């Protein structure tokens, strides 16, 4: 079994010595050589940079509702009866937008190389897609071009990752994935010299 990585059109620059987007962990003695996957793992957690959750949006939306209804009530009291229905319509539209933002605030991609599995989990709203690969058969390649998403494929399965990484950092993510797969394949768990 060999780890298959594509070098076209993302050739390795050869200067990837560690993990900047992911985190490497060792259980037990640091730098100990062991069988693939035992006591060693690499995790990448990629998520939105600035997502507002329900806790952040709820007070903002409540203040918006209070202010809007106070202004609309003042106009209603002075005979402008069309303002109140428009205020309610605006608040419903703002609420729907806030709900959509809060729903996708926790979108993320988790990539974990641990033991004899490479697990990729992509969460978008309430939908979660999970794919597991045997690391020896994983291919890492760009989906379409140099700045496109990264496609992980193997054993008849495929998944695209890198949605929450800037396009200019996707090459680095691909190199880190390849480095981790090489280390797994070679059974080398020593950190690369700096």
What's the gist of this structure?
Helix content is 32%, strand content 25%. The chain has helices spanning 54-77, 83-103, 170-186, and strands at residues 23-26, 40-47, 108-114, 117-124, 127-133, 139-142, 150-154, 157-161.
Give the structural class: alpha+beta
Order of helices and strands: EEHHEEEEEEH
- Give the N-terminus to C-terminus distance in angstroms: 30 Å
Number of domains: 2
Radius of gyration of CA atoms, rounded to a whole number: 24 Å
- The count of DSSP E runs of length 2 or more, i.e. the number of strands, is 8
What's the tally of helices?
3
| Shape field | elongated
Helix content: 25-40%
Query: What's the main sheet like?
Result: 5 strands, antiparallel
Would you give the CATH topology of the largest domain? PH-domain like
- Could you give me the name of the CATH homologous superfamily of the largest domain? Pleckstrin-homology domain (PH domain)/Phosphotyrosine-binding domain (PTB)
Strand content: 15-25%
CATH class category of the largest domain: Mainly Beta
Report low-confidence residues grouped into runs of 5 or more: 1-16, 29-37
- Which second-level CATH architecture of the largest domain applies? Roll
């Amino acid at each position: 079994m060999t780890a298959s990585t594509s070098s076209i059109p993302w050739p390795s620059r050869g200067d990837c010595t560690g993990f900047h987007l992911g985190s490497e962990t060792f259980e037990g003695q640091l730098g100990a050589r062991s069988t693939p996957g035992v006591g060693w793992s690499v995790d990448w957690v990629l998520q939105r940079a600035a997502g507002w959750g329900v806790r952040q949006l709820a007070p903002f939306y409540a203040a918006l509702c209070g202010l809007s209804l106070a202004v609309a009530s003042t106009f209603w009291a002075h005979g402008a009866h069309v303002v109140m229905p428009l205020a309610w319509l605006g608040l419903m539209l703002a609420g729907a937008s806030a709900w959509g933002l809060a729903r996708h605030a926790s979108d993320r991609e988790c990539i974990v190389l641990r033991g004899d599995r490479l697990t990729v989990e992509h969460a978008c709203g309430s939908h979660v897609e999970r794919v597991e690969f045997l690391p020896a058969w994983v291919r890492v390649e760009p989906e379409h071009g140099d700045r496109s998403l990264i496609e992980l494929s193997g054993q008849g399965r495929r998944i695209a990752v890198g949605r929450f990484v800037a396009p200019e950092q996707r090459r680095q993510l691909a190199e880190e994935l390849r480095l981790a797969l090489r280390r797994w394949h070679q059974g080398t768990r020593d950190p690369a010299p700096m």
